[in-house]
């Protein structure tokens, strides 16, 4: 099951299995497809997970997460 839902400024919705893949998909669609905002929510709980916005200079994506993403040591 795809647990995370990505909403691209109300234009369309996508679904991802992990929080990290949803963030990557949001960044990719914002930078390549011209969307300005992506909101990621957990479908099971309905809670906000992350938001990806386009920088005012339209050169980079800014990611705001609700919880800190833990870094896995290599």
Summarize the structure in words.
By secondary structure, this protein is of the alpha+beta class. 20% of the residues lie in helices and 38% in strands. It has one helix at residues 19-33, and strands spanning 4-8, 12-16, 37-42, 48-54, 61-65. Strands 2-1-3-4-5 form a five-stranded antiparallel sheet, covered by helices on one side. The protein is globular and about 30 Å long. The model has no long low-confidence stretch (mean pLDDT 90).
Map the helices and strands.
Elements: E1 4-8, E2 12-16, H1 19-33, E3 37-42, E4 48-54, E5 61-65
Count of discrete domains: 1
Rg over alpha carbons: 12 Å
Shape label = globular
Helix-strand string: EEHEEE
Output the strand order for the largest sheet.
Answer: 2-1-3-4-5
| Alpha plus pi helix count | 1
């Amino acid at each position: 099951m795809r647990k995370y839902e990505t909403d691209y400024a109300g234009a369309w919705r996508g679904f991802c299995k992990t929080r990290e893949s949803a963030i990557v998909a949001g960044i990719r669609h914002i930078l390549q497809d011209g969307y300005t905002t992506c909101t990621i929510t957990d479908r099971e709980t309905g809670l906000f997970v992350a938001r990806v916005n386009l920088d005012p200079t339209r050169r980079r994506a800014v990611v705001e997460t609700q919880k800190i993403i833990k870094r896995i040591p290599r």
